[in-house]
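Notes from the 1:1 (GR / supervisor)

We went over the backlog. Supervisor wanted to see one worked example end to end before approving the batch request, so GR pasted a single chain during the call. The sequence is below; no edits were made to it. Supervisor asked that the structure be written out right there so they could see what the output format looks like.
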Amino acid sequence: MNDCGVIYLVLNRPIFMQMCMLSMMSLRKSGYEGRIAVATDFGADAWRNAEQGFGQLPSPRFQVIPLDRSSDAQIPEKAYKARLGRVAPFHRTLYLDCDTIICRSIAPLWNETATIDPPLALALGRAHTLGSLRRQAPTWATAEWAETIRLCGANARHYNSGVIYWASKTAVSKFFAVWESEAGKDCVTDQAPLVRALFLSNCSPKVLCQFYNVQNRQKIDLASTVIRHFAGIEPHSAYSRMCALYHSLYLNQFVRKATDSKYSFGSTTFAGTALISDDNVGIGNLQEGG
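Structure output shown during the call:
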């Protein structure tokens, strides 16, 4: 497993850095001892400060891969995820969005993907096809999804890009190159360019079991969940929910259910965890429980 690693992407806002730190900590708590990398436009000092903000909690131990966005100012932020295919320093890579909490070991995922061809795997979105997505979210990125449906068809699978496995192979490199090209257009989502890239590169990924990417409003029991993905939620609200789940899983503390209406960000304490804003990036008194 020395050729395997997990990579994150963190750009632009301190809240995403804090979410990534918490996700990496949950990854370590789940038993993962392998390599972790973060592709980011934040400097090493910012990451050291972020680690210190977690107080007595152990560092998740990770490699920083610097991204100089000023040299490619014309590249949309959504395109950077598609660049990870040539940035990741591993032969076999698992990408995780920073708004994820790892609830149990990801070791089975490495085993399940060891021999797939092509070596690419994603979970489906809440809507499993583009047609069902159009029915469930008719006002979301309308023009972009209409173009994607025109190209790929209403029955094309709708993948979520929050958890992606791949290995370094020619077919996968071609897919990433097409994805980067599609994502370089004026796009609102990263899923629509992803779906178009799979179609245009004639690449059929393995569909991951849904418990590797449990999204909001998906009825999957926590006991079966490997990766909980707080997708589509305002970042501060997502971070609060991540803290609550981390507490309940790994700090042996009871946490009451999170509801958006109770949140007041900046200085409020939720279940022993200081909530943060972009101007207040400390995690406060999140500490190991007994």
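Supervisor's comment: Confidence is low (pLDDT under 50) at residues 253-290.
Batch request approved.
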